[in-house]
Amino acid sequence: MFDLDVLAKRWDLALPGAGGRAVRSGSAALDSAGHNLARASLDCCVKCNICETMCPVMAVTELFPGPKFVGPQAERYRNGQSVDHSIDYCSSCGTCTRVCPQGVKVAELNNQARAVMRAQTGAVSLRDRIITQTTLMGKVMTPVAPVANAVLANKPARVVMEKVIGVHRDAPMPQAEPRSLRHWLKHRRKRTDTLVPAGSRGPIVFFHGCAGGYFEVETSKRAIEVLEHIGYDVVIPQQGCCGLAAQSNGLYGQASASVVRLCEQLRAAGEGLTIVSTAGSCAGMLKHEAHEIMGVEAPALADVSTRTVEVSELLRDLDEAGQLPHSFRRIEATVAYHPPCQLKGQNMGLPAIDVMELVPGFQVVESGKACCGMAGTYGLKKEKYEVAQAVGASLFELVREVNPGLAVCDTETCRWQIQKSSGVRTVHPVWVIHAAYGLSRLPGVED
After folding, report:
1. Model-level pTM?
2. Do you know which NCBIfam families this protein is assigned to (predicted)?
3. How confident is the model at residue 38 (pLDDT cuts 50, 70, 90)?
């Protein structure tokens, strides 16, 4: 009989294929947790405590002593060892790094130290390994979508899941779609009545992420149709997982191999082409986290990271260059918009607001909140669920007050968290642009 724990630990090995061959093994990836880019900033910490006053987790629980304590302060004494298990309550939202006036890579240090701790203590649970298998979950759930959704909506089943696996009974779950994005691409008819002549802008690569391929198929479809409507020839290559969920759960070997393999797939779609995504957190993995946190050095990553943009970022840049058609119909609505942590970490500003407010009659209220509490897989876990809910409580209240019918957010898991906890339907900004171009009606506003 095989040992599940031993089998699970093997999942943090370099995966087979070109990506796996190009990346160091899981143990070597953990050695880079003393990554120069993060550690070089360590002694710049002057203990001003700004990171702690801005930390959304520290504000709601005593279980987390704060980013300064578990980060630059504790790192001076670790010497390759883990110091305090409380670091596991860091949600990796990245707020601490963004607000640090000294440029200390606080969030990166914390993530690296947590990965080392989990490797040394064997603290990566079977649950944390299962929830990193996002592509596999999509492939398994899609053929049986009605059954999968019914089970995930069944309270007794969720109680069993909580007790056996450790996923909280009330945590938001993705809704399986009966057809994958690949199925839609294979059977659809392309629109011929595009606003700009079809393909006249040339090719552009679309990166949809795991959720966009299986759980948020409608968002991917609308993004593709918007891009085609304004003249792009959209290329959608076969693509796997970016490894973000694995990285945030300490599985650096698995994550490193996954992200390099993905970059090779995207790179093969066309040399020098812009890569546009609706998966904001996954784009952040390519642009920032794979290198800054895990120290991945691979030509494919270096190339792809510089060519990747979020779809709102692309549309804003086109508008600033005078190349975005303003043939928008009027949509009278005021909605709350929450910019996710992963998007803010990419230092692109808030392009979604700039683009949505081009639509006549459409008003956007930026949340001003640090985090929704989900932080990828953080809010799923039974021991962290209440913390995640407390972090997002003021956001959920704001969303309901601004418009009980619709809210907007760029990343998938954040949308699921906001929608489940506030009761307000939450969509990607591209839904607004799709509707404004007359390609659809905007749910919750134009029902």
Report:
1. 0.91
2. PRK11168.1
3. low
